[in-house]
Design goal:
heterodimer; A: about 400 residues; Immunoglobulin-like; 4-stranded antiparallel β-sheet; about 30% strand; B: mainly alpha; extended
């Protein structure tokens, strides 16, 4: 621009000295092209609006389409516009999307690109940076779209072949083998009366029709009001399997929650990991526990948390978390403890919860070589324990048959 | 290697047209000094010189040796100066050209005069500006990616090279060149229309009317700067792998033209005379200020002189009387020497020699000029339109001239062969070698020349011999020059089969080795002959 300014001054001097009208017109022309071109680019840039459309929450493995709509609301065309959208490397490689476009007056342009969501997480999308300029390169205009969008990629959910969890909550929807939990609403059939049967179970209409006393056979059932205790403390995992095991723990928690919600059971979640959203809002970073709730909405809330939560260091130990959350659960509820290594404090907490009337199951995703001894010890206090090494273990049904109480 | 990239021709034509406008304005100025001079032909020549200069500059960069490049440019300038001489005379009319031709034949030194020097300087400036602008445009565009072979060490260096971008500097340089050329054009155009002495007084009337070449230069300059900026952006996007929407280039051009036309239309509504009035008023104010400042200074000097006079009179010193001043020394004027008229025969010999030298230089330059730009002629001939027609005509003309030359040569050789005294053994002449241009070609030529020397010894290379086999077979039979032959063989194999370009520094030692081998062979030949 300085060279152009010098040229214009010299042109003006020549025009004034030689008194040639046309040189003044040339001066006006060049100055006009430079200044008006600059003003044009700036004004056109101010009338730009951009919008990003995408599904805010996606499941693991999905490939959502992101649409960037850039709208020129003004009457001046945009000569060139470089669009640069920054993206997390976990969902797109290379971690940006770029395009150069040109927009006419009142024109809207939609650019689209695909993400590849193969890692759960809570990701920021953007910022979207736009750059434009004028004809002669005297102005370079950067336009920032400050709105930050986020994308939640849910953890992978593996359909479980089965899940053997103990429960003491009567009158649920899950069949049980313990006859103490017979449910009068679930009639299996009729049989002949034998002395000792309760008179309340006699089917009077059937007895009248058959001419002998008939008794209703009732199916025992339990309800699983489950709280998942997810341990994401760095110290609970061996350094070799730190990242693999913590991600596996989250997958196990998501799969268990999904299995329970599919069977219309209430499920809650408490974890000692770090929630970046909570940390951004000024909290300590540890998310508040989610009490057991039924239904899809409850599952989505749990998956949201499981998508965001990250491993933490120096956080509340799982035993302390277990003691704190066990006090808030109703009698008969089931604790599913997902952790890496089991220490004495955790055993004590499990035993206390058992004494308080809760059922518990232990799932280790980073089992040590002494897991067999641990399993026997847990069985002595009535806690079934399972070991999961990898995600395919869940598909093979290790949670249905692996744990012997 | 192609001289021009696709889509570049338009920008180079823009540059050439700008140079033509610049030359036209300088020609207009010259027309004031030389009445009857028509600057149109000079502008046309400047257009062609700018085009040719760009092509030659690119051609010269393909030659590794400075000597070859120098020869190329010397040949180019001989042709340009010859064309300029004709154009300068033709610009004053065909009668003037005919008169000049007669004068030149009689006095060849009259070919060179101040007008030619000034016009050549002007053409040199437009040539340089055109070449520099074309270089900037070339640097602004996308650079061809030519990675070294994947199995070489240079490949890793190429892969991990820093992504430097010097296009910003090129862009600034292009802008400076365009603006500097524009300023020069405005000054020339202005002075062609206005007397400088009158202009400095600022009391002359304003001049109305359109200055066509200034308008053309400004419009083309704006278009060039716009296109240069676009090329720079395209190259940056290409380097960053940013996809560009397809209609951008077309839209850029349309918007640039429409916007400039719109601004030009708006500018026409603005007045110019009030601006002149403002400057006139400013100049008057400046003059008044200057007048009062000089008056004040004179007053101060008078007061100072009076004070000094008073002080000197106090000390009794009197100023010298007016009549005591010494007269200046008279400088003797040189006496005119009688001119000695040279003899006519001496002038004739001088003219003959001079014309022979001029003709030789011109023929040599023209032949090389055409031969070295074969690719350019082919390129032009392949294009359609007037340029294609011009190229095809040049190619046809060259073929005709070459055919005529060969025929004349054959006839001459036949005539000479009839004379027994002029007959020369054909074997002594040896084959005609193609002129080497690259280092690789020079190395191959040196090897072939050394083969000729060893063949003269009676040891020709057989068709089945590989270079190494031949060297192994012949070297023991040489009394001296074995190492030279092996070195030449090694260099030939490298130049012939290697994928890497040999360094130019290798040519010098190889030439020396060839000369030693040739001396050795000739000594052996002499000994065997005796």
């Amino acid at each position: 621009m300085s060279g152009l300014l010098g040229f214009l001054i010299a042109l003006l001097a020549v025009a004034a000295l030689l008194r040639i009208d046309f040189f003044f017109y040339l001066f006006y022309l060049i100055a006009g092209v430079a200044l008006l071109g600059r003003a044009w680019a700036q004004r056109a840039a101010r009338s730009l609006a951009c919008e990003r459309r995408y599904p805010g929450r996606v499941f693991w493995g999905e490939r959502p389409l992101v649409e960037l709509t850039i709208r020129n609301r003004g009457l001046l065309p945009v000569l060139w516009l470089q669009v640069h959208d920054s993206l997390p490397i976990q969902v797109r490689s290379p971690n940006f999307y770029q395009q150069v476009v040109s927009l006419g007056p009142r024109e809207a342009l939609t650019l689209s690109y695909q993400l590849d969501c193969r890692r759960r997480g809570y990701y920021p999308l953007g910022p979207l940076a736009l750059e434009s300029g004028d004809l002669l390169g005297t102005a370079r205009i950067a336009i920032d779209c400050p709105r930050a969008d986020t994308l939640v990629v849910y953890p992978r959910i593996i359909p479980l072949a089965g899940l053997r969890l103990p429960s003491r909550t009567m009158y649920g929807s899950l069949p049980s083998r313990q006859r103490i939990f017979e449910d009068p609403a679930r009639i299996l059939g009729l049989r002949d009366y034998v002395p000792g049967d309760s008179l309340r179970h006699i089917a009077w209409k059937s007895s009248a029709a058959l001419g002998r006393l008939q008794v209703r056979r009732l199916e025992p059932s339990v309800a699983l009001e489950t709280a998942i205790m997810l341990d994401l403390c760095r110290g609970s995992y061996s350094p070799m399997r730190l990242w693999v095991a913590t991600e596996l723990a989250i997958v196990v928690a998501a799969s268990v929650a999904n299995w329970l919600v599919e069977r219309r059971q209430a499920v809650g979640l408490a974890t000692n990991g770090c929630d970046p959203l909570a940390a951004a809002e000024g909290a300590a970073g540890q998310p508040p526990a989610k009490p057991p709730r039924k239904g899809r909405l409850a599952l989505m809330a749990l998956l949201d948390l499981l998508a965001r939560v990250e491993m933490a260091e120096g956080t509340t130990p799982l035993a302390a978390l277990l003691r704190r959350e066990a006090g808030r659960l109703p009698w008969g509820a089931t604790l599913v403890v997902i952790t890496g290594r089991v220490d004495e404090a955790l055993f004590d907490a499990l035993a206390s919860s058992r004494r308080a009337g809760l059922s518990a199951a232990l799932i280790s995703v980073d089992p040590g070589p002494d897991f067999a001894a641990l399993r026997r010890r847990a069985a002595r206090i009535g806690v079934p324990s399972f070991e999961v090494w990898e995600e395919t273990d869940l598909e093979r049904g290790c949670l249905a048959a692996g744990g012997a109480a | 290697m192609k001289l021009f990239r696709p889509g570049e021709a338009g920008r180079i034509l823009l540059v050439a047209a700008m140079m033509a406008a610049l030359a036209l304005s300088a020609g207009e100025l010259a027309a004031r000094l030389v009445p009857g001079f028509d600057p149109t032909l000079l502008a046309l020549l400047a257009f062609l010189v700018a085009l040719e200069g760009t092509a030659t500059d690119r051609l010269a960069r393909q030659f590794p040796e400075a000597g070859l490049r120098l020869r190329l440019h010397l040949v180019e300038w001989v042709v340009i100066v010859a064309a300029l001489r004709l154009v300068l005379s033709l610009s004053q009319g065909s009668a003037a050209l005919a008169a000049d031709l007669g004068l030149w034949l009689a006095q060849p030194l009259r070919l060179f005069d101040a007008g030619l020097a000034a016009a050549a300087a002007l053409l040199a400036m437009t040539w340089w500006l055109g070449v520099q602008m074309a270089r900037c445009l070339e640097a602004l565009g996308p650079q061809p990616e030519s990675p070294p072979p994947a199995d070489s060490a240079a490949y890793y260096a190429w892969l991990t090279r820093p992504q430097e971008d010097s296009r910003g500097e090129c862009w600034e340089r292009l802008r400076r060149l365009v603006l500097a050329g524009g300023l020069l054009l405005l000054v020339c155009s202005g002075l062609a229309r206005q007397d400088l002495a009158l202009a400095l007084s600022l009391r002359h009337p304003a001049i109305a009317g359109i200055v066509g070449n200034a308008l053309l230069y400004c419009a083309l300059g704006l278009a060039l700067l716009s296109q240069g900026h676009y090329a720079m952006l395209r190259a940056r996007w290409q380097r960053q792998d940013v996809p560009v929407a397809r209609p951008l280039g077309r839209r850029w051009a349309v918007l640039a033209v429409a916007f400039t036309a719109l601004v030009a239309a708006a500018v026409l509504l603005l007045p110019a005379r009030p601006s002149l009035a403002v400057f006139g008023a400013a100049w008057a104010a400046l003059q008044a200020l200057f007048f009062w400042a000089t008056q004040l200074a004179a007053l101060a000097l008078m007061a100072l002189g009076y004070l000094l006079n008073l002080i000197l009179s106090l000390f009794g010193v009197k100023p010298a009387p007016e009549g005591a001043r010494s007269e200046p020394l008279a400088v003797p004027t040189p006496q005119p020497q009688p001119e000695v008229a040279p003899a006519d025969w001496w002038q004739a010999i001088q003219g003959l020699v001079l014309w022979a030298a001029i003709a030789a230089v011109l023929i040599y330059a023209l032949a090389h000029f055409v031969r070295e730009r074969r690719e350019l002629w082919r390129l032009l001939a392949a294009r359609g339109g007037p340029l294609g027609w011009l190229g095809a005509t040049l190619v046809a003309l060259w073929r005709w001239l070459a055919g005529a030359g060969h025929a004349a040569g054959r006839r001459w050789r036949t005539l000479v062969a009839r004379r027994p005294s002029a007959a020369r053994p054909e074997a002594r002449r040896g084959p005609r070698w193609p002129r080497p241009r690259t280092v690789r070609e020079r190395m191959r030529l040196l090897y072939l020349l050394s083969l000729r020397e060893t063949a003269r010894l009676g040891r020709p290379r057989r068709a089945a011999d590989t270079p190494y086999e031949y060297a192994q077979r012949v070297a023991p039979e040489l009394a001296e020059g074995r190492e030279e032959l092996q070195g030449l063989t090694q260099a030939f194999v490298e130049a012939r089969y290697s994928r890497h370009d040999p360094p130019p520094a290798q040519v010098g030692p190889l030439t020396a080795a060839y000369r030693r081998l040739r001396r050795a062979c000739r000594r052996m030949l002499g000994r065997s002959g005796t």
